Structure formats: C-alpha cells, structure tokens
Amino acid sequence: MHLHTTMFLQSVSFQMTEEQHKKWLAAITNYTIIGTYAQTELGHGTHLRGMETTATYDTSTQEFVLHSPTLTSMKWWPGNLGKLVTHAIVAARLITRGKDYGIHLFMVQLRSMKDHSSLPGIELGDIGPKLGYSNVDNGFLRLEYVRIPRDQMCMKFSQVHPDGTYSAPPHSKLSYNSMVHIRSGLVKRVGIGLSKGATIATRYSAVRRQSELIPGRPEPLIMDYQSQQMKLFPQIATAYAFILTGFQLGQDFLSYIAEAKEGEFSALPELHSTSAGLKAFTTESTKGGLEVLRMSCGGHGFSSASAFPEIYGAFSPTCTFEGENTVMLLQTARFLMKSARQAMKGAKLTPFMSYLLLNQHERCRASKPDDFLDMDTLLLAYSHRARRMVTTSFRCIEADLKEGKNNGIAWNNNHLHLLAASTAHCHLFVVDSFNKAVEAIQCEDRTRRILRVLVQFYALDGILKNKGEFLESGYITVDQLDLVSKQFISLLAVIRPNAVALVDAFDLRDLKLGSVLGRYDGNVYENLYKWAKSAPLNKKDVADAYHLHLKPFLEENQRRVQSRL
Amino acid sequence: MHLHTTMFLQSVSFQMTEEQHKKWLAAITNYTIIGTYAQTELGHGTHLRGMETTATYDTSTQEFVLHSPTLTSMKWWPGNLGKLVTHAIVAARLITRGKDYGIHLFMVQLRSMKDHSSLPGIELGDIGPKLGYSNVDNGFLRLEYVRIPRDQMCMKFSQVHPDGTYSAPPHSKLSYNSMVHIRSGLVKRVGIGLSKGATIATRYSAVRRQSELIPGRPEPLIMDYQSQQMKLFPQIATAYAFILTGFQLGQDFLSYIAEAKEGEFSALPELHSTSAGLKAFTTESTKGGLEVLRMSCGGHGFSSASAFPEIYGAFSPTCTFEGENTVMLLQTARFLMKSARQAMKGAKLTPFMSYLLLNQHERCRASKPDDFLDMDTLLLAYSHRARRMVTTSFRCIEADLKEGKNNGIAWNNNHLHLLAASTAHCHLFVVDSFNKAVEAIQCEDRTRRILRVLVQFYALDGILKNKGEFLESGYITVDQLDLVSKQFISLLAVIRPNAVALVDAFDLRDLKLGSVLGRYDGNVYENLYKWAKSAPLNKKDVADAYHLHLKPFLEENQRRVQSRL
User: Fold this and answer.
1) What are the φ and ψ backbone dihedral angles of A409, each rounded to 5 degrees?
2) B98 Cβ partners below 8 Å, 6+ apart?
C-alpha cells in the first residue's frame, strides 16, 4: 500500500481542487479504492516532454479521451499498476481545442469495483521479473480511447473549462514541488539504506578473525586491518553525512513551501537543482558503498543470510528512478552554468554559490597533518575544487560556442566536465551540511567529539578519492596530499574503538536488519549454521532430483562402463 | 557438471599419482561418480593457513581420519557439495606422527552409491539462498571422524608413507600452479562477461531515443550523447583489453609450465603475483563496468528482460572467490615491495619491473592533444604512476620500520598505499598487454586501426579516472591533463560509428545473451511487450490474490464506510 498512501494520495492532495478532494480523498483514506501514480512509459521515463500518452478533450461530451497512440507510449514500470490497483493518476499530454499543453494528471479508473476485471479499452499486466522490488507488481497499461469526465483532470493549478479553453497555472514551477519533495526525502532514505549495510558489515567485522598480523599470534579481528577500516569507516561516515544532509534538505523544503504560500518562489531554482544533484550524488555513492560493504564480508556477503542481496535489490533502482542520475546531474549543471554566467557579469549569487567568487590563486597553507582537521581548510578545499570544475565547464562551453557550435551541441560536447562540476558541487554541499548539522545538534560533548571526527574523516576521504580534482584546483599541492593521507590514517585509529557504537547508534533492530552477519549479539557462525539448516533444500537428506535425474544418470553410466569391460 | 569437469577432475589429474589416476580418472570421465572440490570453510576462505579441518594419520589402520573440530571448520560454499556430489576432494590439515604439515588434499566419498544417502559421520546440506549462482547448490560438509584409506591422499607432490613419515614436495611452489592457472583463466572470462554487458547496452543505445539536443528536432539516439558514450565506450575498450590480457596471461602460464617441467621455476613469483593482482583488478573493474552498463539502459536495465540481473548475479562473486580481491592485491604488493628493495640495492629486476628504475624527474613533453595518441607517451605515464605508487609504499613502510614498528604492523599501517601500488601496477600491465596484443594480432589494416584507437582510448580513460595519481607522479601536469580530456573527447567521435560493429565482433548470439534489450535485430520495444505478456502473473487478468485478499479487504472497507453514513 506504500504507493497508495504516498504517490497516489499526494497527487490527489496536492494537484486536485477542494471540490475534487470531496469526491476522492475519503475513498483513498478509507481504502475503498486502491491507486497508484502512472507516469513512466515504455519509451520514456525521466524525459517528461517525451511522454506520448494523450488526453484529448471532447467538448461535445465534456470528457477527456485517454489514449496510448504508440507501442512506446504504454505506461510501463509504475508499481502495483498491473494487478493490484483499481485507479491511477495517469500523466498524459493534455490536448484541447487542437493544442498540446504538455503533461497533466488525470484520475482514471482501471478495474471494475465489482470483480476487479480491467475495464473496456484498458489493457493491464505485470512487466515481468526484475532485480529487486520483487514483492511489487510493476505494471503496464495500454489505453484505447478511454473516456473520463472533465472533472477527473487534476485542476488545482491548471484548468480545462467546459468549452475546452485552458487556464495555465499561476507559476509554472508549482508542478516541481512534489518532485523536489520526493528527491529531498530520498537523500535521508538513502543514508538509512547505507546505514543498514554499514551496521551489518561493521558488526560482522568485530566478530570475524582472519589471517595474521604478527607471525605466531592469534588471528586478529578483521576490523583491525587498515584495508578493512578503509572499507567500513568511510561508509559509516557517509551514512551519517547523508542522513543529516537529508534533514537539512527537508528543512529547506519546508521553508520554501512556507515562502511559496506567500507567493515567494525565489528559492526554488537552487532547491530544485540541489535536490536533483544530491539525489544522483547520494544514490550513486551509496550504491558503490553498499557493494564495498557487501564485499567486506567476504563470501558470506553473497549469502541471503547477510541481507545484502535483498538490500542491494531494493536499493539499486534508486539510481534510475525518480530521475535518472545522469540527467539529474545535468539538471544541476544547468543551474551551475547560470550561476557562472552571473558571476562573470558580477551579478548577485546565492550565498552557497559565492564559492565561484573565490580567488583562484589562493593556496592552502597546511603544513602538517593536523592542519587538515580544520573544517575551514577542508571546506575551502572543496569550494576551490567545485569552483575549478564549474569554471572549466563554463569556459569549455563558451569556447565551443565561439567556434560556432549550436548551444545544444556545445552542451553535449562537455558532458564530461559538466558531470564533474555537478558532482563536485554536491559533494561540497554534503560536507558543508554535515558539518553544520553536527555543530547544531543537541548532544553530549563526547558524542559531538566523535561526530566531528566523522565529519573530518568524510571530508578527508573525499579528497583522497578525488585527489586529481583537488590538485587541478591548484589549492592543494602533491606534498599536502601526503599530509591528507597521514591524517586520514590517523583518524582510522580514532574511529576504530567507536565503530561498533557508531553503527549501534543507527538503532536498527535485528528484526529490521534481517541479517545473520549483522546480529547485535555477534553470535554469527552458530546462527549461519542454523539458518542454513532451515533452508528448503535441506528438508530431506537426499533431494528429489536424485531419484528423478541423478540416479538414472549414474546407473546408465555404470551400465555403459560394465558393458565395455 | 562444471565443477566436476574442472576443479574435481583437475585436482585428481594434477595432484594424484599415476597409480591413483588408475583408481579414479575413469570413474570421473565416465560420470559414475560426481565430485567437487571442498576447500572454503565457514570461518575461512582465502586465508589457507587458517583452515581448520584435520586429516590425522592413524598408523595402526593406515587410514586418515578426517574431522571438523569446530563449528567454523565446516566446509561451506563449495558448489554442488550439499546435494549433488557423491565424492569430493577435501582440503584438510595433514597431521601425522603428531606434526601438522598444513593443507593437503584428500579424496572423500560423501554419499552412498546405492541410495545417495550421506555416509556415517558426514553431515551435508545446502547453505541457503544467495545472490547469483542460484542453480548451484553451494553446500556445507561437517565431518565427524571419517576414515579413508591412506591412498586417498593426493600424493603426487608430497606423500605419507605407511609408517606415517612424511615426504615434502620437491618445490613448495608447485601447489600454486592450479591457483595461477585458474586466476589467469579468470581474466579472459571476466573480459567476456563484460563484453556481454557492453553488447547489450551498446545495441540498446543504438535503438533508444531520448530527450533533445537541438530544440524542435526529433529525439536523438541516446548513443549520441557524450555522457552515454562515456558509459559505453570505456567498457567496450575494457572488454577488449581484458580478453586480450587474458590471452597473454594464458601464454605466460604455458611457457612457465614448459620451463617448470625442466625444473626452472624462476618465472613463478612474478606470474603468481601478476595473476593474483590482475584477478582483483579485472574483476573489480568489471563489476563496476557492468553496473554502469546496466544503468546506461535506464529503468529497463533492472528488468530481467535486459539479462543484466542474471549477469550481475553470476558475475559479482568473482570479486571474493578464488582469492578475495584485497588479499590478492596485497599479494601482488608483496612482490612489488621485494622488487623495490632489489631496485634500491641495484639488484637485477625482471624486465617488466624495470619501470622502478625510471628517472622520477622525467617530464612528459606532450603539448597538444594528439601527443597523447602516442603509446610510448601513454605507457610512460602509466609507468611513472606505478613507479611513484610503489616507491611511496616502500618509503612509508621503511619509515614505520625505522620508528620501531613491527614488520606486520608497518605493513598493515600502509594498506592504503600498497593497494594503490598494486592497482597501478596491474593497470600498467593491462595497457601494455593490450597494446602488444593489438600490434601482434593478425587482421586487416582497417581493423587494426580501430583496435589501436581502443588501446589509446582505454589508456586515456584510465588517466582521467585516476588523474590524481598521474599528477602525483610528476610526469603529467594539470595543463597536460586538459589535453588528455580533449583527446579523450575526440576519440569518442572516432569510436561512435564503430561502436555497434565493435560489440557485434564479440560474436555473442541472441540465444547466449538472452537479452531483449540486446537483440541483434534491435526490435526491442515490441519484444519487451511480448516478453512481459508471457510473464507468469499475466496468465489471468484478475490475479488469485484478488479473491483471496483484496476483495474481502475492499468489501470490508466499503461496509465500514456505509455503516458510518
């Protein structure tokens, strides 16, 4: 019922008028109808303007005619669409009086309330097996001239009047609200997803013994190896960083909504661009991080007993859904290029974008590892990196335009730089938000001390993993990078005794984790054995397949050998 | 039967005497017994010396007693072990006359040839569901004082005589052969795995249209976006690189085997170290590459219709099996540190390792993008990077030792550097092998021309993705990196018209790919629809779950609403 209570309910709440609410809200909250949100088509997901489903207004009957004009226009992927739901909010191009007004939303009943059979003109089905989300029927929907009354278009912001005339929304950006809301919510969810993996891998690493450090001594805990710490600790820090950045984004969204109610929309462009980029940045980083954590458990990370296979399946679609990641980063890049142009012109920038005004000749003055614990230094390093990546993109595009290239071609010819610029921008945003959140949070001093270490560690780790770009910015030298490595290694030792407590603090109960490796009590091996013994194949010592296939096969081979003798 | 015909048969062939062959080989090749290879235990995989299963020789009966002394000593993960096989080659610590001689191999019958029931003292089972390899029963085996005759120890290289005395193998490295063989074989297999993903994603990108480049024009093929080319083309080049590097490793192994037969083992240390590192380097790179390719297909990459979910499941265990990747890279690092010490002393290095003798003050003289098409320049850049990473590791370890740290601690304290050094070394090896192979291959000139482009492109892509290390080496400047980017972007345009032909040349038939997205005929959308319609859930319009769950739920809600009115 997740999509019913989120996407479906929210679409109705946010996009319908009060009069429409009277007709639909009670049915939704009482669950007398079940709905979903159907936007993605077989041929298009993220590129909204490419959608093909049409809703053509028929003035004579005051109805919309919903239709899938091509194979690729079929709705494809919406959750619960194929088998479960009775209704859907369907995104379709509104056509009235011969003019195409682009994507609008329509309430469409799909199945009979009597026997759940699909209604005339409607073909529904499941799109087949896929990776993850296996408990959801991701469905398809093909519409053949399906008629709905005029008042089933979501009319809060734009209207089609009985005579077919169209009223545009007061602010075209209003339709962005739910996208921005969902994307900023995702950042926190992504952090929580990563915290699950970090908890499992860290707890198991505090139990598992491997190899030897000093010949003759007992096997050390695998968590005492630097290479293992390098896998675990950056992910613990990243989970904290994303959860706290998600909180901040949520706050930013709420203040924007309050402003928007007063007719003030100026915060939207940056919020929209930041939430798009962060959605991509955090999902990409987390997908990689979960893989590192899974593999840090050795072979057992592949067993369903670790819970990693399920976490991976449930998590990885986030990189393409709610806006494909490359497209999201390019959306952020558009805002960055606008800001770069404003900076060139000396126009006002938003406070966060003022990093574009930093002096490119500024140099880092760190001379010992400790200097890289200073958050001002670290933030300045990230700011210079972002400045360099943004200005490089801007200059490369300008150069292509001067050569006479078309705007779209110039943009496309610099995706390499634009993606790097967006990533650097988002990374700076996360380091900055994480730092601010840890300073603002109410907690004991000793708690803040270790949280500060995580902030520093997250920042240092990011420098080491992207050192080329930090060097390119000119702010940091090769010799200073050695200091960064040294400081990074020192912090590993500070985090080590706190690692288990830091993941316990995510407060994920055994029942929620569902992982034998990640058990709170650490009793891993005995429970792996118990878990395996309960596997379906182990009900019988001799599997049925033996009698069916193996026995005849072995006997036949035996006979053949004997006849040859 | 894959493990029967590979690991089981090979163990018997390579590790048993001719007399033992008489007893076992025919049964294996006639399939009158079915076997596997059981090494990994619940508590240990890669760390051989940590294995706990014992095989204690009993002089009185001239038998070995195989035993699992602890819970963690259970064999765990071997394929086909739980339900299918009748026999296994079991790795166990040999104990005779009170002394532990470490891991040796033993032939153990596990199940009755009459009714397949597990024999007394033997507990067998499946270890439960996991990611990938779902058609294989990965099993567990617990041994309780199981007796086998003396001649069931694999005795080709070491022997236990009737009185319990032990003869050591002539060369302790001999047991490395099959590991080296398997790992070098893996590199090519890994390349082929990547070629599957590259074929699917490239073909689909030649069909799929998205968004717009120039306003008002039709949607371009997604392959015409630079960001898409950045996803696809490096993976095409990498698949070629790994397949051809795998060939070379195979050749190196064969020449070593020929030398070893003459008693010449000097090539083993480098071959062993290279094959270990390359196993890690290529599997890690390919795992990441397959994910990039899957996501380059948008949402449809998650559908089983793409074949990516299956490819991912089948592929990803390679990063931990046959030697966990971090351990493998550290193994290579050991060889690199030895070489660095030799270089310091002025002792002779192997031809490949002579990059350690490069002058660290040498600077790249490229001044225009074209200069980075020169393979000597590119190889020198990779050599300097490897030199810098190896010498940095060496110096850091020496510094820790001088501070009085224990050798194992100093080593552990520099995993960060050691892993980077091994990776840089393996990367250089691949660029070098790929280049040599393309020059040596017999083909038409125009074929070699595009293959050369792939070599250059692979090398340029690697520089951009690791630019920090190339800058650190001092050989390349920030300004020259801009030339590398420019040249990289130019080659995208050269590869673009050849991309489909390059993946077609992998010669993977539709039946083998099993991917609707990767169909040779490009008829994707129609077949996605057909494929979905054949999904099990689509047999009926109204699913059984409706009658069972949804109908009563909806009706109950309806009643509740009505009673409230």
Assistant:
1) -65, -40
2) none
- Which residues are within 8 A (CB) of A25 and not within 5 positions of it... i.e. 6 or more apart? A12, A13
Contact by Cβ (8 Å): B459, A267: no
Q: Confirm or reject contact between B530 and chain A (CB < 8 A).
A: no
Residue numbers of B between 337 and 396 with CB closer than 8 Å to A: none
**Which residues, other chains included, contact B55 with Cβ-Cβ below 8 Å and sequence gap of 6+?**
B64, B65, B66, B67, B90, B92, B93, B94, B95, B104, B106, B153
Looking at the complex, does the CB of residue A97 fall below 8 Å from at least one CB of chain B?
no
What ipTM was predicted for this assembly? 0.94
How far apart CA B289 and CA B198 sit, in angstroms, is 9
Interface test with B, best of A111, A226, A308, A310 (most B CBs within 10 A): A226
User: Is A319 an interface residue toward B (CB < 8 Å)?
Assistant: yes
B529:A44 CB<8 A: no
Alpha-carbon distance of A426 to A421, in angstroms, equals 9
| B552 interface with A at CB cutoff 8 Å | no
d(CA B202, CA A57): 40
Q: Quote the minimal CA–CA distance from B311 to chain A in Å.
A: 11
Token code pair at residue A211:
């190899």
Is residue B556 flagged as an active site residue? no
Amino acid letter, residue A257: I
CA angle A218, B104, B3 (to 5 degrees): 110
B113 touching chain A per CB within 8 A: yes
Cβ-proximal residues to A119 (8 Å cutoff; 6+ apart), any chain: A109, A110, A111, A112, A146
> CA angle at residue A81 from A80 to A86, to 5 degrees?
95
Retrieve residue A86's tokens.
């009775």
Joined tokens for residue B491: 């080659």
- Residue A125 to residue B533, Cβ atoms within 8 A: yes
pTM over 0.90: yes
Q: Find the helix or strand (DSSP H, E) in which B494 lies.
A: helix B478-495
B302 lies within 8 A of chain A by CB: yes
Q: What is the least distance, in Å, from the CA of B171 to any CA of chain A?
A: 23
Q: Which of B486, B129, B448 is nearest to A531 (CA)?
A: B129
Handedness of CA A59, A61, A64, A67 (dihedral sign): negative
Q: Which of A41, A270, A322, A469 is catalytic?
A: A322
Contact of A176 with A108, CB cutoff 8 Å: no
Q: Show which of residues 22-81 on chain B sit within 8 Å of chain A, judged by CB atoms.
A: 26, 30-34, 40, 42-47, 49-50, 71-72, 74, 76-77
Please state at what angle helix A375-402 crosses helix A445-465, rounded to 10 degrees: 30
**3-state class (DSSP) for residue B394:** helix
Instruction: Measure A277 CA to nearest chain B CA, in Å.
Output: 15
**pLDDT tens string for chain B (565 positions)?**
889 998 999 999 989 999 999 999 999 999 999 999 999 999 988 888 899 999 999 999 999 999 999 999 999 999 999 999 999 999 999 999 999 999 999 999 999 999 999 999 999 999 998 887 777 889 999 999 999 999 999 999 899 999 999 998 876 666 677 778 888 889 999 999 999 999 999 999 999 998 888 888 889 999 999 999 999 999 999 999 999 999 989 999 999 989 988 888 889 899 999 999 999 999 999 999 999 999 999 999 999 999 999 998 888 788 777 789 999 999 999 999 999 999 999 999 999 999 999 999 999 999 999 999 999 999 999 999 999 999 999 999 999 999 999 999 999 999 999 999 999 999 999 999 999 999 999 999 999 999 999 999 999 999 999 999 999 999 999 999 999 999 999 999 999 999 999 999 999 999 999 999 999 999 999 999 999 999 888 999 999 999 999 999 999 999 999 998 7
User: Are the beta carbons of A537 and B83 separated by less than 8 Å?
Assistant: yes
**Strand-pair category, A99-109 with A87-96:** antiparallel
